[in-house]
Specification:
Elements lengths: L2 E6 L4 H12 L6 E7 L4 E7 L2 H7 L10 E7 L14 E2 L5 E9 L2 H10 L9 H16 L3 H9 L4 E9 L5 E7 L4 E5 L2 E5 L11 E4 L4 E6 L5 E4 L5 E2 L4 E2 L15 H7 L1 H9 L3 E2 L4 E2 L2 H4 L2 H5 L3 E6 L1 H18 L3 E5 H4 L10 E7 L5 H12 L3 E6 L5 H5 L2 E4 L12 H21 L4 H12 L1 H8 L3 H11 L4 E6 L4 H15 L2 E6 L16 E6 L5 H12 L4 E7 L4 H5 L2 E5 L8 H18 L18
Parallel strand pairs: 18-19, 18-20, 20-21, 21-22, 23-24, 23-25, 25-26, 26-27
Antiparallel strand pairs: 1-4, 1-10, 2-3, 2-4, 5-6, 6-7, 7-8, 8-12, 9-10, 9-11, 11-15, 12-13, 13-14, 16-17
Helix pairs in contact: 3-4, 4-5, 7-14, 7-16, 10-14, 10-18, 14-15, 16-21, 17-21, 18-21
Bound molecules: 5-amino-5-deoxy-1-O-phosphono-D-mannitol.
5-amino-5-deoxy-1-O-phosphono-D-mannitol binds next to helix 10 and helix 18.
């Protein structure tokens, strides 16, 4: 969590840093700060609140001619969000400045030691401890900044992506990473530093992604040297050409990124299967799967690890993979898996799903699975992310940047990739009949059109949203493939509208949640024609007889549920297995409109951040 931006070059640093921070606000947005160096003085502004608050608070330095500086947008870990705890933090001498994304776990003993040596602290943060530790090392051992950072980091336990500046040596910024992402944009006579490439996309398409335990001294007119923090060995910088473009990270006329991303789904699902799926020729292939087909085919079990929405996509995949391939699948929250000494066999295949590719718990689960000898396959969206590099092989979802904190297109593109994996394995194992195999391929190929059709439910979703926007609670029910969609619908609602919502397998309702039902309780029921329709109809009747308000997602032309439900949203017909790709669309729209009507900040809901790089 937290976004960091740095600049060193010939342009005015202030506007670059502020714009960059706005693009990184998805990573955290409870406070923000900036440091510029104008050749004489440090110019620092920081505040609780968003980058727009920082802009208002830093108008006195907005015209600064400084061509070096750095900025931070925060998601608090140590210390409440307030002006003092905001980054940057300055060392006791007033010379060293730091911005930090991550957590220093052993900051307490380090702080104690520094207090004994006479250091004082104004904030509650671990970051202020780190900058003073660097200062102490620099002073004591008479080191240059780069070396002092390296020595200090070797005493630190935790995660970090940092930029450090020294007023006494003002033509360089020292950067380092462990567990939190850090990209360096390489321009002509200028460098950009950021948590991802979005802050510098319009200036350069050349980026270096630091690996864990690497650091660099970024200096003008000097070749960039990357070193290993532990043993000081040099690493050859690998410059990647960026695939992202500016248009992808702007709202493109939509009020919110979330809405834009919901509407992008027909296109991005196509991008996900482009070149991988040729229905008429019976081809479904992905390089990462082809290269490791034997491992998949000999897997005694597939373990899926993920968090949040990606975990829900994993649950959908469990149903699909087991049905299509008969390989047993288990889905685990990465955060539980990593700490419960799980049984992992060398012939297990572990699939890690993550939009950002940076989720700390998923990353840790991958490392654990690798230690135990399993083959780990990643399904990620962000190219070059930590998870995509840490896994043995993988497949990108190609959804393009997802900026809204609530995942939408990530979910449907993850399901698309996982369905293709299931189909490929089923073909190799012969566990699907030829006709079913071709039918699914063909159906997957036309899913984008069906998603497009499902998006036509927008007005209906808005109408229903207006009726239920003040509800304090909401239940989501689904069966089979649509049980995970019920969980996902509830997560979408709670995270952006702050309405308490729960997802349940529809039949579980009578084992407890039914007690909640009265005339105040909206119940969203996913009831497409395929699947366990009759059973869901019975569940709807049970709700009806207890006066619950039913909002049903039904297949176009449905008659039975229409008669029972208070409101219906129609979607196009699909096979049961592929229905989550469609049924989820109206639920995304419903939560979006409810959140907008409640005046919530849809793209940046409270207390959240887009990528959770702390455990
Ligand atoms: O980047 P990841 O897919 O690993 O992120 C996992 C979760 O943090 C994420 O899905 C989160 O639950 C979203 N806010 C859900 O909309």
């Amino acid at each position: 969590m937290c976004g960091i931006v740095g600049y060193i070059g010939y342009r005015e640093a202030y506007p670059i840093i502020i714009k960059g921070l706005k693009r990184l606000e998805y990573r955290g947005y409870d406070s923000a700060g900036i440091m510029l160096y104008n050749g004489k003085n440090l110019q620092i502004a920081k505040t609780k609140g968003k980058v727009s608050d920082l802009e208002s608070k830093s108008s006195d330095i907005a015209q600064s001619a400084a061509t070096i500086g750095m900025g931070h947008t925060r998601w608090a870990t140590h210390g409440v969000p307030n002006d003092i705890n905001s980054h940057p933090h300055v060392s006791n001498s007033g010379n060293l400045v730091i911005i930090h994304n991550g957590i220093i776990e052993n900051y307490e003993p380090l702080k104690k030691e520094l207090l004994n040596r006479g250091y004082t602290f104004s904030s509650d943060t671990d970051t202020e401890v780190l900058i003073n530790l660097i200062e102490e090392v620099k002073k004591n051992e008479k080191l240059k900044l780069g070396k002092a950072v390296q020595v200090a980091l070797n005493q630190v336990v935790g995660a970090y992506a940092i930029c450090v500046f020294d007023k006494e040596n003002p033509d360089e910024i020292v950067v380092a990473r462990l567990g939190s992402p850090l990209a360096i944009g390489v321009g002509e006579n200028e460098f950009f530093i950021a948590s991802d490439a979005s802050p510098f996309i319009e200036y350069t398409s050349n980026a270096i992604y630091l690996e864990d335990e690497e650091m660099a001294i970024v200096r003008l007119h000097k070749p960039l040297k990357i070193r290993k923090i532990k043993d000081d060995s040099l690493v050859d910088p690998y410059i990647q050409e960026l695939q992202m473009n500016l248009e992808q990270i702007e709202k493109g006329g939509y009020d919110h990124f979330m809405l834009k991303e919901i509407y992008e789904q027909p296109n991005v699902i196509k991008d996900t299967y482009r070149g991988r799926l040729h229905a008429n020729s019976g081809i479904v292939q992905m390089a990462g799967v082809e290269d490791n087909l034997e491992k998949f085919l000999h897997a005694q079990r597939i373990l899926i690890v993920a968090c949040g929405t990606s975990w829900h996509a994993g649950l959908v995949a469990e149903y699909i993979i087991e049905e299509f391939t008969r390989i047993p699948v288990e889905v685990e929250y990465a955060s539980e898996f990593r700490y419960r000494n799980p049984i992992i066999n060398p012939n297990d295949v572990v699939i890690a799903i993550s939009q950002s590719g940076e989720t700390a718990d998923t990353l840790a689960a991958i490392k654990l699975a690798k230690e135990k000898g399993a083959f780990v396959f990643g399904v990620c969206n962000v190219v070059g992310s930590s998870i995509s590099r840490e896994t043995h092989a993988g497949a990108y979802t190609h959804a393009g940047p997802e900026i809204g904190v609530a995942s939408t297109k990530a979910f449907t593109t993850q399901i698309t990739v996982l369905t293709m994996i299931a189909l490929r394995l089923a073909k190799a194992k012969g566990t699907l009949s030829n006709s079913d195999f071709y039918r699914y391929l063909q159906e997957l190929e036309v899913i984008p059109e069906k998603v497009h059709e499902a998006l036509e439910s927008n007005e209906k979703a808005k109408e229903i949203a207006a009726k239920f926007k003040d509800a304090p609670n909401c239940l989501y029910l689904g069966r089979g493939y649509n049980f995970p969609v019920a969980l996902e619908g509830a997560l979408k609602l709670k995270e952006i509208s702050y309405i308490h919502a729960e997802g349940y397998p529809a039949a579980e309702m009578k084992h407890g949640p039914i007690a909640l039902i009265d005339e105040q309780m909206p119940v969203v029921v996913i009831a497409p024609k395929q699947g366990h329709y009759d059973k869901v109809v019975s569940n709807i009747q049970e709700i009806k007889s207890r006066s619950g308000k039913i909002i049903a997602v039904v297949t176009k032309g449905d008659v039975q549920v229409k008669e029972l439900a208070d409101h219906v949203i129609e979607i196009p017909e699909t096979s049961d297995a592929l229905s989550p790709l469609i049924t989820t669309i109206p639920l995304q729209l419903l939560s979006y409109h409810i959140a907008v009507m409640r005046g919530c900040n849809v793209d940046q809901p409270r207390n959240l951040a887009k990528s959770v790089t702390v455990e």
